[in-house]
């Protein structure tokens, strides 16, 4: 059953890739084929956001529902994976910026806010590794990720809109609260967001189990040692 | 489409490779968990 779901996900993302390159039209006022990068860039940024929010939820569960180590491991894995998607979104965004604006980095509010999000969650990983006592480390990291439940929405959705100036095109949900994206482009964007989110949770499941195995292996006494 | 065909093909190859790797990783993790359960 799980394998069937995995193959459905393969087909879903494969169709999304075909849709992005061969079915969706090019966006108006974009240079060449550059708008196709956005079919990957936007869902990646979305998935990073989902990962950070999921980390906050698992951290809340860790803090308030029995200090279950599995919840802490889930939050840790979600932050690590969220950072991977964040880096992918930033790199794909920079590639698109080079084509459209002539430079990889333009000090655009959205570029700044995603880098701030990355720094915020890198600090989470640093915090975890900086505390010697594992239980204290888990507790502090969980409290920090809980703070992320307020910080991540602010950095992803509020801050970029506050500046009033951006080189970025209108977001999918524009300033007037409407979705004015061409139908096929919107379909590919939504398919990408759904597919990447499902991919996130699949990889998250593998990552958490791997982390659990390695933590248990590290806690086991080495053969021959008393 | 024309010029995009090779980019599309490369993307599909990368995705399929990643997918097969994840399937294999999943089965290896399952095996490790079973081995640990038997200990």
Q: What is this structure, in a nutshell?
A:
The complex is a heterodimer of chains A (226) and B (39). By secondary structure, chain A is mostly helical. Chain A has helices spanning 2-23, 38-64, 69-101, 109-130, 134-162, 183-219.
Descriptive overview:
The complex is a heterodimer of chains A (226) and B (39). With 226 residues, chain A is an all-alpha fold. In chain A, helix 2 packs antiparallel against helix 3, helix 2 packs across helix 6 and helix 3 packs antiparallel against helix 4. The longest helix of chain A is centred in the C-terminal third of the chain and has 37 residues. Chain B has 39 residues and is an all-alpha fold. Chain B is 87% helix and 0% strand. Chain B is built from one helix and no strands. The termini of chain B are far apart. The chains are: A mainly alpha (226), B mainly alpha (39). The interface between A and B is medium-sized, with 20 and 18 residues.
Which helices and strands, and how do they pair?
The complex is a heterodimer of chains A (226) and B (39).
Chain A: H1 2-23, H2 38-64, H3 69-101, H4 109-130, H5 134-162, H6 183-219
Helix pairs in contact in A: 1-6, 2-3, 2-5, 2-6, 3-4, 3-5, 3-6, 4-5
Chain B: H1 5-38
Specify the number of helices of chain B: 1
Broad structural category of chain B: mainly alpha
Supply Rg of chain A. Answer: 20 Å
Amino-to-carboxy terminus distance of chain B? 56 Å
Low-pLDDT parts of chain B are none
Mean pLDDT of chain B: 90
By secondary-structure content and strand pairing, the structural class of chain A works out as mainly alpha
Mean pLDDT figure of chain A: 89
Specify which chain pair forms the largest interface: A-B, 20 and 18 residues
